[in-house]
Request: fold
Amino acid sequence: MNTKKYDVAVIGAGPGGYVAAIRAAQRGAKTLVVERRFLGGVCLNVGCIPTKTLIRSAELYRLMQRSAEFGILTDNVRLDLTALMTRKDKVVSVNTGGIDALFKANGIDCVIGEASIPAPGKIAVNGETYDAANIIIATGGRPAVLPGLEFNGSTVIGSTEALSMTRVPERVAVIGAGALGAEFACIWHSFGAQVTLIEMMPTVLPRCDEELTKRLAQIWKRRGMDVRTGTKVARLEHLDNGVRLHLEGDSPGSVEVDTVLVGIGLQCNSEIVAAKPSLGIRLGKRGGIIVNDRMETDVPGIYAVGDVTDRTWLAHGASHEGIVAATNATGGNMRVDYRVLPACNFTSPEVASVGLTEAQAVERGYSVRCGRFQFAANGRAHALGETDGMVKIVADSRTDEILGVHIMGPEAGELIAVGALAMSMEATVEEICRTIHTHPTLSESILEAAEDYYGHGIHTRPRKK
Reply:
């Protein structure tokens, strides 16, 4: 039997892989995708999309409990977890079905199975071997496990199990206050669970600007969440009716809960490379495939994108890397600029950022000045009933170059695109000030933060001289 030949073969159909495949096909390449489980990868099936669907339900539930503030009287607001999960599954199905349709529309062949790379230029799956002039590895990641806190599917779970729960636990501990853990903590807290959030770093969302995250922790505590930073789990003890966690650090002691969610992030699915050292592809200390800014590995014709590279751990970052890899694999010349890579934590309230934090900018030697604006002074935020949070612009005081934009508050994930675009266009703070913003909108807060940078914000109290 003749071996099938492809210009580009992509292993993995998550946000990095399926985007890479479509871009390669758009550029005229005969393209193959091999996916071992389901189209869309973790993000569409057991990650970004289902999580945000639950977050939407949590937002509505929380809002309905406050409906009297808006002049709407409701009685006996109840949570139907079965219906909620059914909607989540429907949203996932629509999105994954869309990928299948796009593959067919672009003439992309797709094989379901476990792939291996027996040699450069070759892919093996389901007993067949395919020739591929270029290979893009997009195998993603999986929930990381802490020693002593291994998942058992009932009292100790990961994010995948959390997306299919049949009841809201009365008491839950979330270990890890990064994006994954913090989002689930907010979901369960909105659904009425007693939540203890445990983070070993000094602040929640440790990668974000500390000024915002300290305020975020205060907001959560005010709402009744038990937030313990600078604290880690020393030991887990199984009880007849749950789990007891023994803690050490800034908040020592113990806490008894029904369910523990370990949400400390992901680990790379790089076994496809680790199992074949003769390929000559290097792995980093955390198991990620080492690539350059063209997404090339050490082996010509083999690229890697997304979580398997241990670079961004962001779906949109993986998609952009996929476009870069596919472009280069089909004769183009493109590089990734990680300087402008926005991120959003879909917590309550949301926290989004792009560029450097204030601390990072100082550490890198910039002469830093910041502009700030509180959503409590924004008219649209008051109309929405969501006034917690702020916008912060970090800039170089010598040139007014924007180094970072950080937003905590309503629709932060949507607003951060303004900051990303400004940085991509190398706009200065002054150029934001010159841009007319629609009223009344949340986006005016970005304008106000830019005005505050110069000390003349309209809706900000004058700075003390």
